[in-house]
Amino acid sequence: MSDDGVRGEDPATDDAPARPPLAPAVLGGLTVEEVCRRNLLEHSDEVIYFKDLDSRFLLVSAGCAALHRMTPEQMVGLSDFDLFEPAHAHIAYADEQRVIATGVPMVDQAERERWADRPDSWVASSKFPLRAPDGAIIGTFGISRNVTRLVVAEQEAARNVRATEAANAELRRVEAQLRAVLDGTTDAIARYDADLRYRYLNPAGERVRGLTLDRLLGRTDREAGMVDPFVGAWEAALRRVLASGEPDDLDYAGESADGEEAFFHTRLAPDRDAAGVVVGVLTSTRDVTELKRAEQALARQAMHDSVTGLANRYLLTDRVTQALVRMERYPSRIALYFIDLDHFKHVNDSYGHDVGDSVLVAVAERLRRLARKQDTVARLGGDEFVVLCDRVVTDEDARDIAGRIVAALAEPVVVGSRRIPLSASVGAVLAEDPATSPSDLLRGADAAMYRAKQEGRNRFTVVDPDELEPVEETAVLELELREALEDGHLRLLFQPLLSLSDQRLLGFEALLRWDHPTRGTLAPGDFLAAAEAAGLMGAVGAWVLDAACAQLAAWDPRRPEGSARLTMAVNVSGRQLREPGLVELVREVLGRYALEPAQLSLELTERALVHEGPAAHDTLEELGRLGVRLAVDDFGTTYSSLARLPHFPVSVVKLDQLAGAPWQRGMVAAVIAMAHGLGMSVVGEGIETSDQLDELVDLACDDGQGYLLSRPLSRDEVDALLAAGGTRFPGLTSDDGRAGADLR
Ligand code: C2E
Ligand code: MG
Ligand code: MG
Hints:
- The structure is a single chain.
- By secondary structure, the protein is an alpha+beta fold.
- The chain folds into four domains: 32-146, PAS domain (Beta-Lactamase, 2-Layer Sandwich); 185-293, PAS domain (Beta-Lactamase, 2-Layer Sandwich), CATH 3.30.450.20; 306-463, Reverse transcriptase/Diguanylate cyclase domain (Alpha-Beta Plaits, 2-Layer Sandwich), CATH 3.30.70; 480-723, TIM Barrel (Alpha-Beta Barrel), CATH 3.20.20.450.
- The protein has 27 helices and 26 strands.
- Strand 19 (504-516) and strand 20 (520-522) form a beta hairpin.
- The longest helix has 37 residues, at 148-184.
- Residues 495, 511-512, 523-525, 528, 544, 571-573, 603, 605, 633-634, 657, 659, 685-688, 705-707, 712, 737, 742 line the site of ligand C2E.
């Protein structure tokens, strides 16, 4: 307190006269001491008491009596034993007796008061000897102040301290764990401040960075020697995270600690302080080299042929497209060479596939050597290769390259101790119009190659794309189809035939597909007319019959338990019917695969049955006698069809693609009724919706096929179907089976 504050009140520093003593009248006849004593004891809340030598109350303050819910008079003569629990009373008694015995006061002793009728309380208790005027101790007096609030606050504080200590210990444990993780992880983890300076870097980070933390702490990457352009991109990413507060990712190539090319992925996350303010960036960097290599290997596999390592069709098409795009800017010419080995099938057949593969690898190697760096050498599959030559200046150049390819492939290949003779036919197209499509170019080269083959193999032909007339396509197709038969590029799909009443599997219809080298998978409609025109229908039909029956013989023993033998429907064209030898062929194939004739059903379209003459009729009768079932396929639901039905020597009627035809319920009902009347069974074809299915079941149609029940399946899919008990039909799960073309 300053001097100013006390001036005028302190007699020692003030000259003012001393106050007069209090008048007896003011004191009501009492002494000053008496007035003060009364005020102290009767008008304050202080707990003050006086006790005799036996610790009995002589006099208590009003506050003390109130504490015990008594009057001061009631308390006189009582002791603590009357007021407190015995344990507490004993302690108080002992304290007082000690004060009496020693004359030494007890000051501010903390005591816990236990009450029967209220919560415990804490007091600071002081006890003094009560002395007679002669100094003899005649008892004690004491003051106790309630300090419960203080004690509770202290206890609370102590609890808080303990909790804080526990929390700190937990924090230290978590920190130790984190440190172990940070030290042990192979990810590089760093913390940067808002000035892009290092605040932390874990040991993996030190290894990647090639610098220890003490060299980096407080410095930026640029200051620590990282160079552009990388450091520019890196710091830009850090700044982006600082500015946006959003995490970011960065992928980049660099060098691993041992100097190898390596790939990294970094996750950048904002580092926030307790208030959520972004104060830096945390980065976690992972070496993803192995992942990247695996990805690259996969990408390579997707773009390359696995046998020869050459580009595959996909990559070739891409390169051709690029070359055409470049042509737009820099007019030039490109040449595409289509190379087909002559009689390669014989190599495979006579020496086995391993030798065949070695020959393909040798061919690939020769073509690679012959090509320039910017050229692309591809294998399309089988024995077909393509070389794309960029920037071919003259026709002469193009011929020269073709000649060199033919010459390079005319040399025999040595595999082990064998010398395998080789020759190739090469077709080339030249393009200088950027608008040409890659597939047209490829088809052109393919056609040119066939011309070379037609002209006697082991040679080349160069054509202009404009030269390729559609007229030529039939001829090309014919050659290609011959090759397809030879090289095994034809295959069958099998569409399940189900009994409509209970959707039981009865058998399959074989549907022909051609995996064409340049045009992709072809459906019968794409090539059968040409096959007929080229006189190849007999050969194709024989192949189909044989392949379908072989498959039936393999599957029949695996039919669902307890069901009848599986059937196979094979489509037969009108031309096949006319050609001699069909009956003999069927008999032979049935014998070869030990099939019952009734397991085979031959399907002829209504059109074929109408247009083929009496000879065809005889053939049909003979086939009928053989026991095979005959079906009229694509049977129309018109009056003219209805009128013809009794004249067809068939036992099965296949109602034309119901999906496409306008649904004439009355006609369908009439056809089914008439067929049943003639002892024929009826198959509903092309069932795509459950409404169609329900209608057919209503009309007592016997069997059915269509996308709703099942799409045509590959051989593997039928294998899986039979393995699963032959009851799971993919199409039955969806309402609409039209999920896409079945060119698989
Ligand atoms: P098809 O004998 O009437 O065979 C049914 C055709 O309809 C098949 O077409 C099949 O994929 C398709 N199909 C099946 N279910 C549905 C459906 O729910 N909705 C629709 N929209 N179509 C369905 P694909 O395979 O293109 O065969 C077409 C035709 O080519 C066949 O008609 C058949 O006449 C003929 N064909 C197929 N394979 C051969 C064969 O090996 N030899 C001969 N000569 N002709 C064949
Ligand atoms: Mg058919
Ligand atoms: Mg049909």
